Inverse folding.
């Protein structure tokens, strides 16, 4: 680290150096990916922190080998950019190396000078339009926001400031009035769950917090709509009683941030990943995790096993992109989001996911929209909406090209999720080390 926290004395700095992860980045060993190795003393949650670094840099993990026993762990990742290329930007490589080397520090996700709002409720066409209209009425400017929807529920983190002063909103009475106006909007009709609006302390990584909000809202228990079951993930959980592990196998369509979503959910469900492999072949991803509870015990009942399956399926599907991706790049102004989302609502477009950000006086807003039934909207509707908002500002963007060469499935062991074979952990780890070129074959 270039700078030490002020709270550390010299002895603590020495201990930190001895205990810090060792990071090695290799751009030569593999022809198509950048190889990243992280060796470290074992610490609860450290795998999630490492994967979070790749997530924040928008990198794609093509393969991963994870092993931890005793007091040490070794993670190896094969990563690319979102276009499937090796990493060539020295600034990205340097930042990644520094971030991975300091993951023993708990990093918070803080937003200074803004007020954070956490919202959960019933999803419907036009909901965000009403939410942003309420905020506009209270003279709030949206600085940053992320919105997820899944199984009829919505979770959102919205960071706002006062339009006139440009400062954080500290008036507790005003905040309570905003919450009281948003709650009935989020509740919807015949909602068996009460809507929630709270002020965020912004100490948790934003996307991890969205997973937690969806999990607390029990979105995994709701029956998915017809449009949301395509490309559904396959998840299988079995116990390996001889070694005291529960083995999770998942197979699904590959996409960016997939490993983060799965590890995040396992961590928040109080499971520890001891060993894992991740492999992508063409457009498919195959993940295998050997887990235990934090107290060292495996999954103990069929009900718990089914809950893990449901929660992992939900975690994989929450971020799955559907519909059309629209990007709005325009000068920021009061009521911009309220006006744009109202146009979406008036033309029957539903926002499945949104990422709102502002830099200086410019706004970059990304929307994934479907029709009211959850399917890809008609191109004429998209064209009409673009013309009304401004076609030079609102553009249709293709999803990032994560699979430049569609490979044929290659599974020499012919192992499917539905019939997972539980092999020896020793064999698994030795095989991974051999694949990485870290040991020789003596057969």
């Amino acid at each position: 680290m270039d700078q030490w926290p002020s709270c550390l004395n010299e002895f603590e700095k020495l201990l930190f150096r001895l205990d810090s992860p060792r990071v090695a980045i290799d751009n030569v060993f593999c022809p198509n990916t950048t190889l990243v190795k992280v060796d470290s003393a074992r610490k609860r949650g450290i795998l999630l922190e490492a994967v979070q670094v790749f997530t924040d840099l928008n990198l794609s993990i093509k393969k991963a080998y994870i092993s931890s026993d005793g007091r040490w762990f070794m993670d190896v990742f094969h990563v690319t950019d979102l276009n499937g290329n090796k990493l060539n930007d020295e600034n990205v490589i340097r930042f990644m190396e520094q971030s991975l080397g300091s993951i023993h520090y708990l990093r918070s996700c803080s937003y200074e000078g803004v007020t954070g709002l956490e919202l959960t409720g019933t999803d419907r066409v036009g909901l965000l339009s009403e939410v942003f209209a309420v905020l506009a009425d209270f003279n709030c400017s949206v600085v940053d926001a992320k919105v997820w929807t899944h199984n009829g529920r919505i979770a959102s983190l919205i960071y706002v400031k006062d339009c006139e002063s440009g400062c954080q909103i500290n008036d507790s009475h005003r905040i309570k009035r905003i919450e009281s106006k948003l709650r009935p909007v989020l509740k919807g009709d015949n909602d068996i769950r009460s809507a929630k609006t709270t002020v965020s302390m912004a100490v948790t990584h934003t996307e991890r917090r969205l997973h937690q909000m969806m999990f607390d809202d029990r979105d995994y228990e709701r029956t998915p709509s017809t449009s949301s079951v395509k490309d559904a993930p396959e998840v299988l959980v079995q116990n390996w009683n001889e070694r005291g592990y529960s083995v999770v196998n998942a197979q699904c369509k590959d996409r960016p941030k997939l490993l983060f979503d799965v590890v995040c959910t396992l961590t928040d469900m109080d499971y520890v990943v001891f060993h894992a492999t991740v492999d992508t072949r063409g457009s498919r991803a195959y993940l295998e995790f050997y887990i235990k509870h934090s107290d060292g015990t495996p999954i103990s009942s069929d009900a718990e096993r089914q809950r893990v399956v449901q929660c992992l399926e939900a975690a994989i599907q929450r971020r799955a992109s559907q519909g059309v991706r629209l990007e709005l790049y325009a000068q920021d102004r009061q009521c911009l989001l309220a006006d744009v989302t109202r146009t979406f609502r008036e033309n029957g477009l539903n926002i499945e996911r949104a990422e709102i950000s502002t830099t200086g006086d410019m706004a970059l807003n990304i929307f994934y929209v479907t029709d009211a039934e959850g399917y890809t909207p008609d191109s004429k509707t998209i064209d009409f909406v673009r013309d009304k908002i401004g076609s030079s500002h609102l553009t249709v963007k293709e999803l990032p090209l994560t699979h430049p060469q569609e490979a044929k499935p290659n599974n020499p062991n012919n192992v499917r999720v539905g019939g997972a074979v539980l092999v020896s952990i020793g064999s698994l780890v030795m095989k991974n080390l051999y694949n990485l070129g870290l040991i020789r074959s003596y057969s």
